[in-house]
Amino acid sequence: MIDAIARLGKAVLDSIAGAGAALLMLLRALIGKPQLRKSFPLLMQQMYSVGVLSLVIIIVSGLFIGMVLGLQGYTILVDFGAEQSLGPMVALSLLRELGPVVTALLFAGRAGSALTAEIGLMKATEQLSSLEMMAVDPLRRIISPRFWAGFYSMPILAIIFSAVGIYGGYLVGVRWLGVDEGAFWSVMQSQVEWHQDILNGIIKSIVFAFVVTWIALHKGYNCVPTSVGISRATTSTVVTASLAVLGLDFILTALMFG
Amino acid sequence: MESRTTQLAVGLFVIIGVLALLFLGLQAANTSAVSSGDTYRIYAKFDNIGGLKERSPVKVGGVVVGRVTRITLDGEYYEPLVEMTISATYDEFSETSSVSILTSGLLGEQYLGLNPGFIDDTVEMLKDGDYIYDTKSALVLEDLIGQFLFSQGSD
């Protein structure tokens, strides 16, 4: 009994210490004199590996998710003779929910796990310690550009995802199933609001970008520097980031559209 | 310059992102929102607004000329007061105009139908902050059924 309470206490203390370590890491990585000249090429390099290389999976899955939405929405809406509402249905579900959320989940799997594994291996092979020996702050040199790259890339990826998804819905709905093209776009335009839908979706994906990148970097930086530790940290990144995204999505949706 | 291709790829990535945002903004959302550009406000009191909501469209003959911007209860008797914002492009509505709450389709959203009134030398045009007095409230299904039953009973 006493042991169980002690274990609970240890778990709570550990999680608080972990959150504190993550926050400290982020603060120390981000606060400080910006060195644009030195950090810009690093940022570019990370934008490439985090953002550009995720582009293919984002475009392909966006296209297919839009096409599935078009197909499923059509079969339901046609029963009510309301297939003209296919446009807003596809656009709103992509812009408000699927765009930010699915992008964040894919990003956690594609880029987040890679970040964790990379930093974890750097730690295991003592590269981070070597940097410190050379008086280079690994937080500024390694963590900070990766954080900003993820932070900038994911909203862009989410926007591309939504746009491609809407095009996929258009391909299936209009080109294949024969929904009237004018009605598809005009009903969409009358229902989708710039501020309410597009901007809120972008705000969502900015929040997700922050959380997912942060979790990935923290798990990598604080992993146990063994092969088992790195594998655990990578798994934990994907699981924690996905859960955080889904939970936050509920809260953000309740705040924005509730 | 070994990072030249990297820079190029990132630049393209950002450009694709901006293009996608433009696509969403121009093709998917309504850019011709009446809230942009010059507008003026008109008020109307109703007995019952039914399912009218803020942001419901104000239409003249089916053409959207504005939006409902605020719905409040007003005055001693708590009458619903609807504030609508009309695009300044359409500023020639006379004070004899009337508004009614209509439904688009059988089950559709409710909107405000604005009927332009006649114009002669004695009537003035509606200006910012004016009231339209000739209003027709929303049809409430329960009231209609009640009236129908009442008229059946009296036969």
Automatic annotation (TrEMBL), chain A:
UniProt entry keywords in alphabetical sequence: Cell inner membrane, Cell membrane, Membrane, Transmembrane, Transmembrane helix, Transport
Subcellular location: Cell inner membrane
Pfam family, one: MlaE
TM regions (residue ranges): 12-31, 52-78, 149-178, 198-217, 238-257
UniProt-listed InterPro entries: ABC_MlaE_roteobac, MlaE_Permease, Permease_MalE
Recorded GO CC terms: ATP-binding cassette (ABC) transporter complex
GO MF annotation terms: phospholipid transporter activity
Membrane topology value: Multi-pass membrane protein
Subunit structure: The complex is composed of two ATP-binding proteins (MlaF), two transmembrane proteins (MlaE), two cytoplasmic solute-binding proteins (MlaB) and six periplasmic solute-binding proteins (MlaD).
Main function: Part of the ABC transporter complex MlaFEDB, which is involved in a phospholipid transport pathway that maintains lipid asymmetry in the outer membrane by retrograde trafficking of phospholipids from the outer membrane to the inner membrane. Probably responsible for the translocation of the substrate across the membrane.
Entry similarity comment: Belongs to the MlaE permease family.
Protein name: Intermembrane phospholipid transport system permease protein MlaE
Organism of provenance: Pseudidiomarina aestuarii
TrEMBL record, chain B:
UniProt-listed InterPro entries: ABC_MlaD, Mce/MlaD, MlaD_Phospholipid_Transporter
GO molecular function, one term: phospholipid transporter activity
Domain of life: Bacteria
Record-annotated Mce/MlaD domain positions: 39-117
Pfam family membership, one: MlaD
Gene expressing this chain: mlaD
The protein, known as: Outer membrane lipid asymmetry maintenance protein MlaD
